[in-house]
Design a protein that fits this description.
The chain is elongated. By secondary structure, it is α/β, with parallel strands linked by helices. It has an eight-stranded mixed beta sheet, sandwiched between helices. Strands 3-2-1-4-5-6 form a six-stranded parallel beta sheet, sandwiched between helices. A two-stranded antiparallel sheet has the order 7-8. The model has no long low-confidence stretch (mean pLDDT about 90). The longest helix is centred in the C-terminal third of the chain and has 25 residues. The chain has three domains: about 50 residues, 434 Repressor (Amino-terminal Domain), CATH 1.10.260.40; about 180 residues, 3-Layer(aba) Sandwich (Rossmann fold), CATH 3.40.50.1950; about 220 residues, 3-Layer(aba) Sandwich (Rossmann fold). The structure holds flavin mononucleotide. Flavin mononucleotide (FMN) binds next to helix 10.
Length: about 475
């Protein structure tokens, strides 16, 4: 007797199963013959099994994620829905996902670590200050090794902690120390969910790239009605799996594509002490470098002097002046894509005296040269030089920081400099430089899009999508040419 025949007989036989599922008995006979249950009937069989208390899973092949080796960390927080995380563990155990589980202290008031350990067949982590685990810096390992961290249920408390950088237990320390993708599945009383503090924390986390599975609306365990209900574990896992798949696809989206990115300001020294530069922080360019590296591109980042940490990309070149930046860009060509996000100082200032006395700029200029003036010498325009050269990459993207007539100015730059795409932003009143948010317009020859204000990380994400479209179009044109 094969697996499926055994299962059908445990469920009451061909006739009974056919009746329960409202299908013809010949269909069930067919399943038995093929030793296979069609995927659209799998759920119905599982439900029937749980209704009749028959353990179906050992008869059905597990639904594996196609060749996807994946590590997930589930963080269970303390709320009414904590017990539903047990169902999430059960569902994950049917996939190929390697699962670790962390519980907060409050979660342990609702369900026990022992229950989690036995379901996951693996130690459940509960303590930041564990002598035994911390011998191997467990909190860092738990933070770094998963591809995805799912916080389910996520309490108002854990949202507030991460939004404000608190790390006073294992769960919050892991979240703060991680580079992994993070999904929050919040569940709480509707008043807690709508509280301005929670709304603000939600916004902050969203802007930092955390994904949310929005809570459902309806009757709550606390007797109130509104938004805050924990979604069904099945739909949480479905969301997480499609997110994993999307990321797996994105990971190789720019495979074998070389991308050169300039970022930050440049500086032009007047003497060993003074210089002329601008307020660019490099944040937007660094986010773009990170995003494209995450998507599999071979990124070379050429950065002017900045005060922020460098992203984790293949090759980083540090420069000071516009000329050094141009020289290094030229040396790195050919590449498939060039993104010029650096704010290159347009001029260098040459100090002069009215009496035409020679000034020694290798040493500090003394104040006794009291009648100084500066001659502005134009720096090379890197974007224009490269995009009009015979080593022009397939795609050239520029940035245009403006204070007036933003879009018109950016559009004329696009046309006159032969650029494929310009990101224009209004930098008046200190709105952009050094900030974590950006409000930009995207300008192409025949397309204009005004993007809402969003984090620089999010701008990088959407820009990467756009560049991918441009590359696909370029390749199509190449094939059709
Ligand atoms: C019976 C009970 C139910 C609770 N349910 C929730 C809930 O559903 N969502 C929530 O955010 N907090 C809920 N709380 C409050 C959290 O348990 C509390 O904020 C705790 O500090 C959360 O800790 P954690 O985020 O470390 O798990 C509940 C508290 C109690 C006593």
């Amino acid at each position: 007797m094969n697996n499926i025949s055994q299962l059908i007989s445990l469920l009451g036989g061909t006739g009974a199963v056919a009746e329960k599922l409202k299908i013809r008995p010949s269909a069930i006979s067919n399943w038995k013959k093929l030793n296979k249950i069609p995927s659209n009937k799998r759920e119905a069989i599982l439900e029937l099994g749980s209704y009749l208390n028959v353990n179906i899973e050992k008869f059905l092949p597990s639904k594996k994620l196609n060749n996807l080796k994946f590590k997930m960390l589930l963080i269970i927080c303390g709320g009414i829905a904590s017990y539903k995380s047990l169902e999430i563990i059960r569902l994950i155990k049917k996939t190929d996902i390697e699962l670790d589980v962390v519980m907060t202290k409050s979660a342990q008031k609702f369900i026990t670590p022992l229950l989690v350990t036995s379901l996951n067949e693996k130690k459940c982590y509960i303590d930041l200050f564990s002598n035994e685990d911390e011998a191997k810096m467990n909190h860092i390992n738990l933070a770094r090794s998963p591809d995805l961290i799912l916080v389910a249920p996520a309490t108002a408390n854990i949202m507030a902690k991460l939004a404000n950088g608190l790390a006073d237990d294992l769960a919050s320390t892991i979240l703060l120390a991680s580079f992994s993708k993070v999904i929050f599945a919040p569940s709480m009383n509707p008043v807690m969910w709508n509280n301005l503090a929670t709304r603000e924390n939600y916004r902050k986390l969203l802007d930092r790239g955390i994904k949310f599975i929005e809570p459902d609306t309806g009757d709550m365990a606390c007797g109130e009605n509104g938004t805050g209900r924990f979604p069904e574990p099945k739909s949480i896992l479905k969301f997480a799996l499609s997110y994993i798949k999307e990321n797996q696809i994105l990971k190789s989206q720019f495979k074998n594509i070389s991308i050169l990115i300039t970022a930050g300001p440049t500086i032009e020294e007047i003497d060993p002490i003074r210089f002329v530069s601008n307020k660019s922080s490099g944040k937007q360019g660094f986010e773009i470098a990170s995003e494209l590296t995450r998507r599999g591109a071979q990124v070379t980042l050429i950065s002017g002097p900045v005060n922020i940490p460098f992203p984790d990309c293949k090759n980083i070149i540090k420069v000071k002046t516009a000329k050094e930046m141009l020289d290094n860009v030229t040396q790195q060509l050919p590449t498939d894509i060039l993104i010029c996000s650096a704010a290159v100082a347009d001029w260098k200032l040459i100090p002069k005296t009215f009496s035409n006395n020679k000034i020694d700029t290798n040493n500090k200029i003394k104040k006794n040269n009291n009648k100084l003036f500066f001659e502005a010498e134009k720096n090379p325009d890197i974007l224009e030089t490269i995009s009009k050269s015979n080593v022009r990459p397939k795609i050239v993207v520029g940035f245009s920081a403006e204070t007036t007539n933003i879009n018109q100015n950016a559009h004329s730059k696009l046309m006159s400099k032969n650029i494929d795409l310009i990101i224009a932003n209004d930098v008046s009143n200190n709105k952009v430089f050094g900030k974590d948010f950006n409000k930009v317009s995207l300008i192409e020859k025949n397309n204009y899009e005004e993007w809402k204000k969003q984090s620089k990380k999010s701008v990088a994400y959407h820009l990467a999508n756009k560049i991918n479209d441009l590359l696909i179009n370029y390749n199509k044109r190449g094939v059709n040419a």
